[in-house]
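Shipment paperwork, digital attachment
Item: protein structure file
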Amino acid sequence: MIRVLVADDEPLIRAGIRMILTSADDIDVVAEAANGREAVDLVRAHSVDVALLDIQMPVLDGLSALAELRRAAPTVQPLILTTFGERENVLRALSHGGAGFLLKDSAPAELIQAVRAAAAGDAYLSPAATRHVVDSLASGQTAARGEEARRRLETLSTRELEVLALLGEGLSNADAGERIHVSEATVKTYVSRILTKLRCENRVQAALLARDAGLEPS
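Attachment content:
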């Protein structure tokens, strides 16, 4: 079972997320928090695989909770629940190692998919979330940043660039494998190499680097 913590300051939102997640036979919501401080404390008290964190919460917001969780419980995979209203929030979440991003208007099936992906170590960035991230960062796009991204991508092989472009689309390892006709395990190996070469903490950071460089799937 995938053990999940849900953190949101609105009880109805938490109840809705619980109902969706527990409809899957492999997911169990083991704790709920109304703020980021409660979330961090509950992760310490429970064996949690995935923490679903809303950005806007009292006492301790989701991004601050994410930073604490990365220090206190590095094996927990944090998913950020957001509307991507502010560019700075996205950048902070990336810098603190968020395992993925999910929009609040996402379909129930996407929520379940995201939790499963995060639990498998396959950080989730949906195509819809990818578009919102790229749009939110577009105003800060500079020629220098694009040049720097392209320079970093020079260390990758042709196949690694192909895989990275698919990450930029928000594809999972399994979907990327189907696209380029290799196994999911092979894609996972490529992703590990890509993260190491690009000095990225997770797939989300790598995906955004691909977008900065203008990398598109072939």
